[in-house]
Write a structure and sequence with these properties.
By secondary structure, the chain is an all-alpha fold. The chain has 6 helices and no strands. Helix 4 runs antiparallel to helix 5. It starts with a helix and ends with a helix. 9% of the residues are buried.
Length: 169
């Protein structure tokens, strides 16, 4: 579920400064290096909170080491979800940036290939002089069999009738 900016600010407190650049007018203005650094920071925070939630669950089940300040699991989960949503936005922005760079690289590679092809010239030699109008086409000696369209329909109907007869049995 999406959180509003006010809810994020209330939930994260001082950590909201980490998530704030992941929202969209600011995220679109960041250069690729800063977006990558933001993704790393958000991933670290999300993983840290994920580990805390996991440790709390283990402690409640009696499998992990019990800690005095286990914390509120629901609040930790909501904080983790905020960081996960921010990371999702940042990853999408990174995909867009990488896609633009990839398209530009491919376009440049294709332009270079076309330039090399044009510079290489034609590999086919000229045909040379020809006599008058050239060769004449020989008529085909194959027989052409023309099927009456009514015959096609008759056979199709026969197959339908035979199938219907079989289905009634």
């Amino acid at each position: 579920m999406a959180n509003s900016l006010v809810a994020e600010r209330r939930l994260l407190g001082d950590d909201h400064a980490i998530v704030a650049p992941s929202h969209y007018p600011a995220l679109g203005a960041l250069p690729a290096e800063e977006v990558l650094a933001l993704a790393r920071t958000l991933r670290e925070q999300r993983d840290r909170l994920r580990g805390m939630v996991h440790a709390n669950r283990r402690a409640r089940r009696g499998k992990g080491e019990p800690r005095a300040a286990a914390g509120n699991d629901a609040a930790l989960t909501r904080r983790k979800q905020v960081f996960a949503a921010a990371l999702k936005r940042v990853n999408h922005r990174l995909d867009m940036l990488h896609g633009e760079a990839r398209r530009a690289w491919h376009a440049e590679a294709l332009r270079g290939a076309l330039a090399r092809k044009r510079a290489a010239g034609s590999s086919h030699p000229a045909g040379g002089d020809t006599a008058d109008a050239g060769m004449l086409a020989k008529p085909s000696r194959k027989r052409t069999v023309r099927t009456d369209p009514r015959e096609i329909g008759r056979v199709s109907q026969f197959v339908k009738n035979a199938q219907a007869k079989r289905d009634r049995r």
